[in-house]
Amino acid sequence: MRFTKMHGAGNDYVYVDCFDQPLPENPAELARRVADRHFGIGGDGLVLICPSDKADARMRMFNADGSEAEMCGNAIRCVGKYVHDRGIVPKDTLTVETGAGILTLELETTDGKVDRARVDMGQPILEPVEVPTTLPGNPSIDGSPAVDVDLSVGGKQLQVSCVSMGNPHCITFVDEPTDEWVLGIGPSVENDEHFPNRTNAEFVKVISPAEIQMRVWERGSGETLACGTGACAVAVAAALSGRGMRKVTVHLLGGDLEIEWAEDGNVYQTGPAEEVFHGTWQPR
Q1: Which of 2, 17, 100, 121 is the most exposed place for a label (fewest CB within 10 A)?
Q2: CA–CA distance, 97 with 263 (Å, rounded to integer)
């Protein structure tokens, strides 16, 4: 099986081109094996780049534990780069089918190769039952989203905000996003009973209304260097709670993402996409 290793702001996946080779028989098991950083290729998971009868391409994404996720904001930029740079979809604006719907990418190129992409991530999902979470909405905020609501987890009493960008996120604003928060509390938040599909957990420091620092414990993968949907969810939560503007720079361990919750209600994410290496995976 031929593969390509790519990353967006350090959020790295093993990519398999299913336009010219068969779909893997058991992608969940394959994801667990290739993502292993000691005995496999190494990465946050597996992404299959497939044909689509609804869009220019289809992305299927599997976490390092083999679970299939709806969407990944960093991975979709890499998918756009892959299909553009190889001439599969030689367009600067293209569509990708995901588990969260069809998203549109605007590609930025240098010497004919994509180095950045702007993704229309669609509108955030704020209704608690649709996130999904069983936490209550906050009646003091229009629409009663689950923003700044209480959650007792891991021996701590948190105030959290729940936003879905096609996949669920639980955001906690803290003084500093330390290991104690991310590695100590993140796994408990991911698996808390208030999140029926589990959740991604973000720990966020607001530097200024236009600048945010975050670390993320990703559902099914653990801490990653970046999370594109998480950055979008954090920006929305910051705006709803009055902590941030609707256009912010989000600093992650792997780099920066530019997020805008625009007047049309959609969230736009801009960031890098890089190819690292390619090779052949020999089944054992």
Answers
A1: 2
A2: 24
| pTM for the full predicted model | 0.94
Span 14-64, pLDDT tens digits: 999 999 999 999 999 999 999 999 999 999 999 999 999 999 999 999 999
**CA distances to 84, 252, 258, 265, 271 from 105, in Å:** 11, 21, 14, 17, 11
- Annotated catalytic sites, by residue? 72, 227
Q: Which of 198, 209, 201 is nearest to 68 (CA)?
A: 198
b/e 227-244 (16+ beta carbons within 10 angstroms → b):
bbbbbbbbbbbbbbbebb
Same domain, 145 and 104: no
Q: The dihedral of CA 153, 12, 51, 82: what is its sign?
A: positive
Are 246 and 208 in contact by the 8 Å Cβ rule? The answer is no
- Which positions ≥6 away from 220 have C-beta within 8 Å? 45, 63, 64, 65, 66, 67, 69, 198
Q: Are residues 113 and 132 part of one domain?
A: no
